[in-house]
Amino acid sequence: MHKPLPKTLRVLTYAITLAISGTAMAQEKIDFMFPAPVDGKLTMEMTRVIKAFNDSQKDVEVRGIFTGSYDTTKMKAESAQKAGQPPALVIMSANFTTDLALKDEILPMDELFKYGDKKAGDFLQTAFWPAMHKNAQVMGVTYAIPFHNSTPILYYNKTMFDQAGIKQPPQNWKELLDDAKKLTDQSKGQWGIMLPSTNDDYGGWIFSSLVRANGGNYFNENYPGEVYYNAPTTIGALRFWQDLIYKDKVMPSGVLNSKQISAAFFSGKLGMAMLSTGALGFMRENTKDFELGVAMMPAQEQRAVPIGGASLVSFKGINDAQKKAAYQFLTYLVSPEVNGAWSRFTGYFSPRKAAYDTAEMKDYLKQDPRAAIALDQLQYAHPWYSTYETVAVRKAMENQLAAVVNDEKVTPEAAAEAAQKEADTLMKPYVEKTALQAVK
């Protein structure tokens, strides 16, 4: 018969057993920041997605942190990193990737993908639509994985079109203006068209689309220290916008936000609106008294739209266990099934090509072909503007856009010149740094 272990040894053995058991059972906890730039219901849906992931396995526990707009998400993620609590994964505006990488704040995605079976760049190139690649890479290094994407599209009141005898959505700026005049009736408070002009990225994004359509470039895609705010094509797009208000009188003056525009649209007081495909679910759900139409953005010199939306990035400072957990959650979020379901719920198109091979997505597009418009536009898509100090450089033009829509005495030429001067000043440190490197 064996003698019982001494009490101190029994306690030690029990403690070791608990420690081993606890280690085996412990979940790696990570912070995941996400914005909801379009509609409050997206916050609830993302909360559901996080819970579904947490319930599906026992290795990782994701703590979802709602962070508001794209701009505030960037600020909060940077603040958390500086405080020594970097988020393991963030849904970040896709055009912030360059600035974050240049400031050495985010990890190359291969730091996460070393826990998988392929390189991040290979995954990006093979699994995602080509139009998303450029905003996910900086100097050839993959720093982001696309999560949801958009392009600007034209929403229109098809019932109002029919009543005005308009047979099809406008294909170019001339048709857009002609249609807007037919749809405008100021005695009824009814406008032909509205474009968002806020400085929270919406104004700059829509404006960059007009510059592209006018045959121009908005920024240098290959060098993050150069924008073309005072180019003739930019000035021409700015003049077109201002003329819609003060010369053609088919759009109200002043800065318009997306909520004002959608409210006017839903009330039947607006014929056309240029907004994001990411708003499709919201627009579809709230259009009650007329038929909702969706069309490609009209051309001028060419058809062209910028990519919008968000990517997944990981901030520097997380440990290896957190990197592994972040990889597990990232691959869940961009899986064809989960990413496809998110697309169907929100209206964003899925950047993951395989999402469109699922039976659910095929049925969805069959039931509502309007959701395919953004995919159709991808052949005309360009990268979203991304520069050194992206937010401030973006606002340099957005603030001038606000001046132009508020006052017809502000000329497009003067506004463009002021925006260019401010942007050049903001980007000067990067330009000087790269010039110095070139000399060396």
TrEMBL record:
Q: Where is the signal peptide?
A: 1-26
Lineage here is:
Bacteria, Pseudomonadati, Pseudomonadota, Gammaproteobacteria, Enterobacterales
Where does it live in the cell? Answer: Periplasm
Q: What is this protein called?
A: ABC transporter substrate-binding protein
| Record's keyword annotation contains Oxidoreductase | no
Q: Which PANTHER family match?
A: ABC TRANSPORTER SUBSTRATE-BINDING PROTEIN, ARABINOSE-BINDING PROTEIN-RELATED
Keyword Ribosomal protein among record annotations: no
Q: Which family does it belong to?
A: Belongs to the bacterial solute-binding protein 1 family.
Q: What is its main location?
A: periplasm
